[in-house]
Amino acid sequence: MLRTILETPSKYRFCLAEPITEILGSPELFINMGSTINLTCIVQYAPEPPPNIAWSQNSEVINFDSPRGGISLVTEKGFITTSRLLIQKAGQGDSGLYTCTPSNANSASVRVHILNGKWNGKIHNKLISHKYHGCAFKFQL
């Protein structure tokens, strides 16, 4: 996050921050087939609440009126804006890269994997390492 401190002739100091967009949780999510996908995007430090937040899957804007159904969005605007994407009855077609794009801030993404209820041996033996906001996470699946 970029912060700038402005000194003024008076006794006041101003701190300007660059807007931050993040999707809560791990950068990769593993969801059981048939479960609900719940993605929460947070936008902070924007000069005003974003007029629009678009969600996409694999670079395709999500159509909330699609025949698939079961897709909803709840957005709460304020000093911190929260946008929750809910996808019911997750199936293999719901796997992919989900991106939250506010109209006045950078985007954030998360990769969603839909599991068929069994752990894949290839995934189970894979050591995953990620950096998230400067912190390193390693875990064994």
Automatic annotation (TrEMBL):
GO cellular component: neuron projection membrane
InterPro entries for this protein: Ig-like_dom, Ig-like_dom_sf, Ig-like_fold, Ig_sub, Ig_sub2, Immunoglobulin_dom, Zig-8
One GO biological process term: synapse organization
Coiled-coil residue spans: none
Name of the protein in question: Ig-like domain-containing protein
Organism: Aromia moschata
Segments forming domain Ig-like: 19-111
